[in-house]
Amino acid sequence: MSAVSRWAVLVRVEGEVDLGSARTLEARLGQALETPDVLAVVVDLSGVGFLAAAGLSALVRVAERAESMAVRLHLVAEHRAVLRPLEVTGLRPRFRLHADAADALTRYESASSR
């Protein structure tokens, strides 16, 4: 997890997000949501090779928590391993999707320079 500006945190995820790792992912994202002054959490899933139902559930719970805290949750997802499960489950519209982290962070980097 790394703060990239005053208002945005980037969390990079790699490998498989399944029953064994979903709880850890949810905890990491929960910590990111607790960052003081955070307006956005960007979850970079470009290194994920497999996204299971448990991982999807964790992302949905984090999205709900973020929404209740007025924090925007952004997902960086460009590979089929992540996009396909989001599409098949109908969850794709639930998330703000970006092709790369720079795209997701642009708004918050420029805001920090003001």
Description:
By secondary structure, the chain is an alpha/beta fold. It is 43% helix and 28% strand. It has 4 helices and 5 strands; from the N terminus they run E-E-H-E-H-E-H-E-H. A 5-stranded mixed beta sheet has the order 1-2-3-4-5, sandwiched between helices. Strand 1 and strand 2 form a beta hairpin. The protein is globular and about 35 Å long. The mean pLDDT is 92.
In short:
By secondary structure, the protein is of the alpha/beta class.
Distance between the termini: 24 Å
Radius of gyration: 13 Å
Taken as a percent bin, the fraction of beta residues is 25-35%
- Give the oligomer, counting copies of the same chain as homo and different chains as hetero: single chain
The best one-word shape is globular
Q: How many β-strand stretches?
A: 5
Give the strand order of the largest sheet, numbering strands 1, 2, ... along the chain. Answer: 1-2-3-4-5
Mean pLDDT, nearest integer? Answer: 92
How large is the count of helical segments? 4
Supply the helix-strand structural class: alpha/beta
Topology:
Layout: E1 2-3, E2 8-17, H1 22-33, E3 40-51, H2 53-68, E4 72-76, H3 80-88, E5 96-98, H4 101-112
Parallel strand pairs: 2-3, 3-4, 4-5
Antiparallel strand pairs: 1-2
What keywords describe this structure?
114 residues; five-stranded mixed sheet
